[in-house]
Amino acid sequence: MKSVEVRGERLEGFVKLIPSPTYDVVTSRAVGHLKTLLPLAVSCLRAGGHLCLWLGGEHSVERQDAGLPISWQPPVLIPISRERWIQIGTKVDAEQLR
Which of 14, 20, 42, 90 stands the most exposed, by the fewest C-beta atoms within 10 Å? Predict the structure, then answer.
């Protein structure tokens, strides 16, 4: 790994600072509204990059990502937790969607 950048700010403000999708991995643990978060997070990723979300029982990525170029893996339950899991998605190239 060449570098890691940890940002402790809201994604809505951060995306205004980056000129184009450049990140290999974007993570979020205090997930709020998925309909707002998902498009912004995906816009930060390069094709093949991964979005890793720490989700609770009330959240589901299903039907929240309509039209986004992302492919989801099955969720992974967090040990010693009944209602928390990690959901990982991979940004696909726009040509793969055709």
Answer: 20
Q: Please tell me whether residue 40 adopts helix, strand or coil conformation.
A: helix
Residue 95, CA atoms < 13 Å, CB-side half-sphere: 1
| Structure-block tokens of residue 92 | 């696909």
**Secondary structure in 3-state letters for 42-96:** HHHEEEEEEEEEEEECCCCCCCCCCCCCEEECCCEECCCCCCEEEEEEEECCHHH
The pLDDT tens digits for 2-27 are 778 777 777 788 788 877 767 899 88
Contacting residues for 42 by C-beta, under 8 A, at least 6 apart: 51, 68, 69, 70, 91
